[in-house]
Amino acid sequence: MGMQAIINCVLIFIGAVIMLVSIVQAGGLMKTLPFIPERHRKRIKTYLLFHRGLMVFFLIGYIGVIAAFVFRYSLLSEVFVSTIFLLGALFVFIGVAVQSRLLAEVQQTIQGILPICSKCNKVRIGNDSSEAPEEWKEIETYISEKIDVGFSHGYCPECLNEELAGIDRTDDH
After folding, report:
1. What confidence tens digit (pLDDT) does each residue in 30-78 have?
2. Is residue 118 part of a domain?
3. By CB neighbour count within 10 A (0-12 exposed, 13-18 middle, 19+ buried), where does 4 fall?
């Protein structure tokens, strides 16, 4: 095997190692799914799984190309390289689509003005239709729909003191 083939194999091997690390790190993206609204979660999960599947394919492809170089199967190495380039474009396209969708969901979740009732703290939900009546939801419901979080109620120190003072006043009468 010549020096150029050795250099090619080393470069492809480095690419395979980077892909392996990327496959492991991509598993962490699944942890973001609970923060995606339910209506988009299934599609995002499908994108993430397909994207990860392509990563595995690339890893196998890298190994196949190294084997083709080592055993001097030029036709096989050309087919692998051509396929990897084609699917590489698809890989990048899906990666950008997933990132764009995730960022759009996060931005939509945390951006804007939230109209809230001064008395009961219900949130007004914007309607695209001028014919539809306004919809008001409990703030806990609204936030839970956006970011999949549960609520536990309690008192802040100021309100607790106020409540305790109110109890003390009723005990005095």
Report:
1. 887 777 777 778 887 888 888 888 888 888 888 888 888 788 777 766 7
2. no
3. exposed
Backbone angles phi, psi at 137, to 5 degrees: -130, 155
The parent domain of residue 167 ranges over 123-172
Question: Per-residue pLDDT tens for 77-102?
Answer: 677 777 777 877 887 787 788 778 77
Is residue 143 domain-resident? yes
Q: Give the predicted TM-score (pTM) of the model.
A: 0.51
Query: In terms of domains, do 19 and 96 share one?
Result: yes
**Phi, then psi, of 19 in degrees rounded to 5:** -65, -40
* Four-residue CA torsion sign, 69, 70, 72, 76: negative
* Spatial contact of 139 and 124, defined as CB atoms under 8 Å apart: no
Q: Are residues 105 and 128 in the same domain?
A: no
Number of domains in the chain: 2
* CA 83 and chain centroid, separation: 28
- Of 147, 150, 51, 166, which is closest to residue 107 (Cα–Cα)? 147
SS (H, E, C) 74-97: HHHHHHHHHHHHHHHHHHHHHHHH
Task: Give CA separation, 10 vs 22, 61, 78, 122, 125, in Å.
Answer: 18, 15, 17, 61, 57
Single residue among 110, 139, 162 that ends a domain in this structure: 110
